[in-house]
Specification:
Layout (H helix, E strand, L loop, with lengths): L2 H9 L5 H8 L8 H13 L3 E6 L7 H20 L4 E5 L10 H18 L3 E3 L7 H14 L3 E6 L5 H9 L5 E5 L15 H17 L4 E4 L3 H13 L7 E6 L4 H9 L4 E7 L4 H10 L2 H8 L8
Parallel strand pairs: 1-2, 1-8, 2-3, 3-4, 4-5, 5-6, 6-7, 7-8
Helix pairs in contact: 2-11, 4-5, 7-8, 8-9
Bound molecules: flavin-adenine dinucleotide.
Length: 303
Amino acid sequence: MGWFNSLVVATVPITPPPLVRIFAARYIAGDKLENAVKVVKTLNERGIMATVDVLGESVTKKEQARQAVEEYKLVLSAIAENKLDANISLKPTQFGLKIDYNFCYANIEELVVEAEKYGIFVRIDMEDFTCTDDTFKMTLELMKKHKNIGTVIQAKLHRTINDVETTLVGNKVNLRLCKGGTYNEPRKIAWAGKEIVRQNFITCLDMLFSAGCYVGIATHDERLVFEGMRLVRKHKLNRERYEFQMLLGVDRELRDIIVDEGHRLRIYVPFGKQWYAYSTRRLRENPDMAGHIMKNIFKRYEI
Ligand SMILES: Cc1cc2nc3c(=O)[nH]c(=O)nc-3n(C[C@H](O)[C@H](O)[C@H](O)COP(=O)(O)OP(=O)(O)OC[C@H]3O[C@@H](n4cnc5c(N)ncnc54)[C@H](O)[C@@H]3O)c2cc1C
């Protein structure tokens, strides 16, 4: 990592929020639901699907979690009303996981039921390693009653391959496979080597495809996109059996390559006022962005 990038990563925690907001504008649809609807419509017109995320996490008060339920209900009805090709992604800690498991479960189930009425799928995002067990438990419990539910696995965690083998494959869980966000896990929990994480990603994907699981291949790493395409071919999957996924604002060229090759692609579209935590994670993941943005400070990323 060059000195400028190291500096960006080191100073993220003390970067003034207004500056983070400028850096992060490309990753976020806007503050309001109407902004997200507009972005999703544009993506859909290009044959790209979306998953909508209302920004927010780690709530400490039950009222905040209940507010998130109401906000997501508005998203669900907007998806249905505007006939968008989109589902929703949500974070358990936004629904009170750190307050009380059962409270969080009830909140998420309320949304799953609401989404079911519209035929919309619900993806439970994976947060830091302290949430992994509860997130799997919740997903498996919800799957007993509802079909429109799935979660995420992180290739960087040591435990992931074991989770795939012992639980996820047998239960045919609908999974998004990603490397795992920048949650600062200790080395005994997460692989530090980038090549190991890639290798684990490929191994898990192969196992999931072999077992007939639906997988969202979530990466902007060209090598992993290539490996994903190779495994799709190897397993002779038709395009309804998997999808590629990318974050809003990242690598438009790679996005076009995936779509032009005939694969389905879904873009993660976050919106809302709670943009700070999400934005600092994106910035830590790609400090190069700070340099690009400095050069194009008044130019917004084209959808
Ligand atoms: C749709 C989607 C949903 C996700 N959901 C979760 C989740 O639930 N839980 C979780 O822990 N993680 C989640 N992630 C994040 C993921 O775990 C990685 O942290 C992130 O995708 C970066 O890994 P990468 O595979 O893209 O590879 P990297 O090696 O990090 O990136 C490859 C290349 O992509 C580009 N790039 C990567 N990130 C950025 C960026 N922020 N801005 C600009 N360019 C960038 C760079 O050019 C980089 O060289 C999700 C990612 C995606 C795409």
